[in-house]
Write a structure and sequence with these properties.
Layout lengths: L19 H21 L8 E12 L2 E11 L2 H8 L4 E11 L7 E15 L4 E6 L2 E5 L2 H8 L1 E9 L9 E9 L6 H4 L9 E7 L2
Antiparallel strand pairs: 1-2, 2-7, 3-4, 3-8, 4-5, 5-6, 8-9
InterPro entries: DUF4390
Protein name: DUF4390 domain-containing protein
Organism: Pseudaquabacterium pictum
């Protein structure tokens, strides 16, 4: 039991509530701390990710080509949609720019590729399509392998690069959520944010 001694000549001071400004400041500080903790938390097991393994430019036979390789990990929501028959589209894009200090960088060329990945319930197999080309695979990991690597992708002819100027390539690889059925696009969570963006200097 805790006893509180009061001097008989001193009146007991009434409790005063904290001013609203102080309460608001405390709430803001707590919200900030919580947000920082969430940002620092690592991705959980099974979370989707694009782990870049290789990305480089090469000069080959009069062309500027691109080499790309990554390890793709799909989240549970994405895999569930695939097994329910929803096809997914993955985009790769490379844009060549000429640097300009006095104005917006000039776009020299742009190339893109789109893969369509779909599950075939009747045969329990996977089909990956690129343009008019299509191939079947027994497992999801086998179907993901071709779309996660690009070799010798022709980006632009070297003679289109202005001699004496500096150039760079903006590269992106992502899951194209705009190709999903409209009802699914209404409430997409963080599981569907899959992609990377990089900038490469043309040497």
């Amino acid at each position: 039991m805790r006893c509180q001694l009061l001097h008989p000549s001193l009146p007991r001071m009434p409790h005063r509530p904290a001013p609203p400004a102080r309460i608001a400041l405390v709430r803001w500080w707590l919200a900030l701390c919580l947000g920082l903790l969430l940002l620092l938390q690592p991705l959980g097991v099974g979370a989707q990710a694009v782990e870049l393994k290789q990305l480089q430019l090469q000069r080959r036979d009069g062309d500027l080509t691109l080499e790309f390789s990554a390890r793709l990990t799909l989240g549970p929501a994405i895999e569930d949609a695939l097994h329910r028959g929803v096809p997914l589209y993955f985009n790769a894009r490379a844009t060549v720019y000429r640097d300009r200090w006095y104005w917006r960088d000039e776009r020299i060329a742009r190339v893109s590729r789109t893969w369509r990945l779909a599950y075939q319930p009747l045969t329990a197999s996977w089909r990956l399509s690129l343009g008019n080309l299509s191939q079947g695979y027994a497992t999801l990991s086998e179907a993901m392998a071709p779309l996660s690597q690009i070799s010798g992708w022709r980006v632009v002819e070297l003679d289109k690069l202005e001699h004496g100027s500096r150039h760079h390539v903006e590269f992106s690889f992502s899951l194209d959520n705009s190709q999903l059925p409209q009802p699914m696009q209404i409430d997409l969570g963080g599981d569907w944010k899959l992609g990377i963006e990089r900038s490469l200097r043309v040497e």
